[in-house]
UniProtKB/TrEMBL annotation:
PANTHER family in UniProt: SULFATE TRANSPORTER
Family matches, as Pfam families: STAS, Sulfate_transp
Keywords of the record: Anion exchange, Cell membrane, Ion transport, Lysosome, Membrane, Transmembrane, Transmembrane helix, Transport
Membrane topology qualifier: Multi-pass membrane protein
CDD domains: STAS_SulP_like_sulfate_transporter (cd07042)
UniProt KW Transport keyword: yes
Function in brief: Sodium-independent anion exchanger mediating bicarbonate, chloride, sulfate and oxalate transport. Exhibits sodium-independent sulfate anion transporter activity that may cooperate with SLC26A2 to mediate DIDS-sensitive sulfate uptake into high endothelial venules endothelial cells (HEVEC). In the kidney, mediates chloride-bicarbonate exchange, facilitating V-ATPase-mediated acid secretion. May function as a chloride channel, playing an important role in moderating chloride homeostasis and neuronal activity in the cerebellum.
The protein's name in its UniProt record: Sodium-independent sulfate anion transporter
Gene3D superfamilies (UniProt xref): STAS domain
Annotated ranges, domain STAS: 468-576
Length: 576
């Protein structure tokens, strides 16, 4: 009796601890943490940190913000994700796509970018709490690919002006293309030479890393391969540091050969609530409601794309490294990161594929590696900001171009052409509209995908065969958009011919039915009765049969299989 009472008392405790572990995944791995995991996490965190710093500076340029905002956005994710994340590999921070979306919505205004981070985080956190992660399933693969390809082209070409060292180029893509070519005569030789050298070095190091396989030439020692791998992995930091030293050596002698980043705000960002209003250059105060109105559709697109990008990365690496993630918990981690990030002047962030790949390849064991990465970013903010003054913009442009180039996946077009040509429609709609406005491209692609999905529901495949009695096989569920089409097929093939013919409706694949369909079936049964022929249902699933019986349809007949229905109808014909 006493044991039973103790079990009853301990059950709520176990249940509450399990619930707590579901909301705080750190509790599932922290009790097992050991020295080996610590070594691997520190190594991975340092490696990712040296990749994060130059990329964060570069992506702030894409977002149209001062470079320090890239670093402000790069450290909060490591701390939050350690507590709330379910993937050991994912690193949260600024990315090329989120930076482009942010630029298109806030137009390079830091206060609005910070407020956007808060609002995006709130939307994402609410979605997680309401378990609305399934909404991401409605964004199809062709839409995602169309957007990422267009984003890569937009971001990559947007950095050509920095490689050339030209000023006064508009942000709008088509104007940007025109003015970039128009101003080529104004290009600065120093920026062009340095930018091309940085591009060449980054591409060379990238290919060197990809060529380092386990079965490579035995004449190359293991130590040499590790050195090459380390340098290639930290290529962004190495190239930016080298370019900065070159720029510094020219600047100290008064030779302004390169376009450099210039003055940046020193030190850590203050911890304060994000601004809920803004002030224009002429002193006009813009209210919170007006700012939100200006955000427009971007306030829906950015949270969704952030979630989509991060969860896709988490699923890919979970599959690769044989563990599982919780999609709704990932939504919560990203949402809380963006909310807390807004208090340290961050703009919206998400999972980074490139840095997550580095994290995984370096052998990270737990999300704690993100803490080390965040510390590296904080140390850079605290002590290295004066050195960032000399970073050439051409070197950051080279980093961005090399980061986004792999996103242009031209082979996917051929794959979609072979598998399903209709998928090219949402792909190209998204791709082309994204050059006009990024958020319109995504919305347009989703609309086209939705229209195709609705069309397939309204026009289900119906295979008609003649066995003396017409057999119509339905390939999917019956919902209200399909009723008119089904009725049209039955009328033209069975009721409007002379003499009218009986029909066996093979419903073995039908798992969904609604009230509109029931109403149409009632009318069809009446039409068959008037013409003294039969409409017979075959292969009904128990749930569908229960609904049809409850509807009390006059003249309703059903059989377990099509063969049974055909045999019964053949006997009826012989009797007649």
């Amino acid at each position: 009796m006493q044991r039973r009472l103790m079990r009853r008392q301990s059950a709520p405790c176990c249940c509450s601890y399990s619930t707590l572990k579901a909301w705080l995944p750190i509790l599932s791995w922290l009790p097992k943490y050991n020295l080996k995991w610590l070594k691997m996490d520190v190594l991975a965190g340092l490696t990712v940190g040296l990749t994060t710093v130059p990329q964060a500076l570069a992506y702030a340029e894409v977002a149209g913000l001062p470079v320090q905002f890239g670093l402000y956005s790069a450290f909060m994710g490591g701390f939050i994700y350690t507590f709330l994340g379910t993937s050991k590999d994912v690193t949260l921070g600024p990315t090329a796509i989120m930076s482009l979306l942010c630029s298109s919505v806030v137009g390079g205004q830091p206060h609005r970018a910070v407020l956007l981070s808060l609002l995006c985080g709130l939307i994402q956190a609410v979605m997680a709490l309401l378990r609305l992660g399934f909404l991401l399933d409605f964004i199809s693969f062709p839409v995602i690919k169309g957007f990422t390809c267009a984003a890569a082209v937009t971001i990559g070409f947007g950095q050509v002006k920095n490689i050339l060292g030209i000023q006064g180029v508009p942000q709008q893509f088509f104007l940007e293309v025109y003015y970039t070519f128009h101003k080529i005569p104004e290009a600065r030789i120093g920026d062009v030479v340095l930018g091309l050298i940085c591009l060449a070095l980054l591409v060379t190091l990238m290919f060197m890393k990809s060529s380092l396989t386990s079965d490579s030439d035995s004449t190359c020692s293991m130590y040499a391969r590790k050195v090459v791998w380390a340098v290639a992995t930290m290529r962004n930091a190495a190239v930016v540091i080298a370019a900065s030293l070159i720029a510094f050596s020219w600047e100290v002698y008064g030779n302004h050969v390169f376009t450099i980043t210039g003055k940046t705000t020193r030190g850590l960002p203050p911890f304060r609530p994000p601004p809920t209003s803004d002030t224009t250059a002429n002193g006009t105060v813009v209210s919170f409601g007006e700012i939100v109105k200006d955000f427009g559709g971007g306030l829906a697109v950015i949270p969704f794309m952030g979630l989509l990008e991060s969860i896709a990365i988490a699923k890919a690496f979970a599959s690769q490294n044989d563990y599982r993630i919780d999609a709704n918990q990932e939504l919560l981690a990203i949402g809380v990161t963006n909310i807390m990030g807004s208090f340290v002047s961050a703009y919206p962030v998400t999972g980074s594929f490139g840095r997550t790949a580095v994290n995984s390849q370096t052998g990270v064991c737990t999300p704690a590696g993100g803490v080390v990465t965040s510390v590296i970013v904080l140390l850079s903010l605290a002590f290295l900001m004066p050195a960032f003054y000399y970073i050439p913009k051409a070197s950051l442009a080279a980093v961005i171009i090399c980061a986004v180039a792999p996103m242009v996946d031209y082979r996917v077009v051929a794959k979609m052409w072979r598998i399903r040509k209709l998928d090219l429609l949402p792909f190209f709609v998204t791709f082309l509209m994204s050059f006009w406005a990024v958020q319109y491209g995504i919305v347009g692609g989703i609309a086209v995908s939705g229209a195709l999905l609705l069309y397939s529901m309204a026009r289900p495949q119906i295979e008609v065969t003649d066995h003396g009695v017409l057999v119509m096989e339905l390939s999917s569920g019956l919902s209200f958009p399909a009723t008119e089409y089904l009725s049209h097929i039955i009328h033209t093939r069975a009721l409007q011919v002379s003499p009218p013919r009986s029909v066996v409706l093979d419903c073995s694949h039908v798992s969904v039915i609604d009230y509109t369909v029931i109403s149409e079936l009632r009318d069809l049964l009446r039409q068959f009765k008037l013409r003294e022929v039969h409409l017979i249902f075959a292969g009904l699933q128990p749930s569908i049969l229960k609904v049809l019986l409850a509807a009390d349809l006059e003249g309703f007949r059903h059989n377990h299989s099509v063969d049974e229905a055909l045999q019964m109808e053949s006997r009826n014909l012989l009797d007649d």
